[in-house]
């Protein structure tokens, strides 16, 4: 009886230790990744079920309305860094909200276009403080630098495409600077990159624009996906991760 009890205790401790050592995947993004509006959904929630829960824990920290800049400035990125441990993973998909004005009175979330070191000092109407705004590429590089310091594996993803207004040519991505800039930063920093935009558009090439709109998007706009669109994009995320070399994260997929 004593031996059986000892074995049960050992098994319990062993399972607890395994759970503690299990890596976490943190997802960073905007409303195309996580969306609370009725009828809309981002790919960050359905992608969770594509991972083996026995191998990895997945946390979707994306939030609507954020840009590469405001996700950092609001302290959301810092919370992830504090909660992370060496060996964890991070997926970053930003860009849909980076194109707005730098000092818009309602949101003030835009970043400077491009990947350079340009800056602009503004009076932030939201925080009521001066702020030095950087380029989209600069903010992506900060995610990379911070992740490396914490010994995390970071994967940059290009933004998902908007609903096409014309037939899609196979092998072409949406014409967006943010798609190219995301890839440029990933290559320069030598971090894994998933051209999610291209993967999704490749699927769209088999359909007419009206069919894409009806099946994968909402009536509200051409940016936010329906649950079916979120599932489609999540599958493309998994496809992109599986194609990466020397990235152990793909071993955690079902």
TrEMBL record:
Organism, scientific name: Limnoglobus roseus
A GO molecular function held by the record: hydrolase activity, acting on ester bonds
Membership in a protein family: Belongs to the 'GDSL' lipolytic enzyme family.
Annotated signal sequence range: 1-19
Record-linked InterPro entries: RhgT-like, SGNH_hydro, SGNH_hydro_sf
UniProt keyword terms in alphabetical order: Hydrolase, Signal
Name of the protein: CE12 family carbohydrate esterase
Domain SGNH hydrolase-type esterase: 28-231
């Amino acid at each position: 009886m004593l031996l059986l009890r000892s074995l049960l205790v050992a098994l319990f401790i062993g399972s607890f230790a395994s759970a503690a050592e299990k890596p976490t995947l943190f997802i960073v993004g905007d409303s195309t990744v996580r969306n609370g509006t009725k009828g809309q959904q981002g790919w960050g929630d359905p992608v969770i079920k594509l991972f083996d829960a026995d191998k990895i824990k997945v946390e979707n920290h994306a939030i609507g309305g954020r840009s590469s800049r405001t996700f950092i400035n609001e302290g959301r990125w810092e919370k992830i860094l504090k909660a992370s441990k060496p060996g964890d993973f991070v997926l970053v998909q930003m860009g849909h909200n980076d194109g707005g004005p730098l000092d818009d009175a309602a949101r003030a979330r835009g970043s400077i276009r491009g990947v350079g070191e340009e800056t602009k000092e503004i009076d932030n109407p939201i925080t009521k403080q001066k702020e030095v705004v950087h380029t989209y590429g600069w903010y992506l590089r900060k995610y990379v630098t911070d992740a490396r310091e914490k010994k995390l594996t970071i994967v940059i993803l290009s933004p998902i495409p908007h609903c096409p207004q014309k037939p899609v040519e196979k092998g072409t991505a949406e014409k967006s600077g943010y798609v190219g800039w995301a890839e440029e930063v990933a290559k320069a920093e030598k971090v894994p990159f998933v051209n999610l935009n291209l993967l999704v558009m490749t699927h769209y090439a088999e359909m007419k624009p009206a069919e894409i709109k009806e099946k994968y998007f909402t009536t509200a706009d051409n940016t936010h996906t329906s649950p079916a669109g979120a599932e489609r994009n999540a599958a493309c995320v998994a496809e992109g991760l599986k194609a990466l070399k020397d990235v152990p994260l793909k071993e955690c997929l079902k």
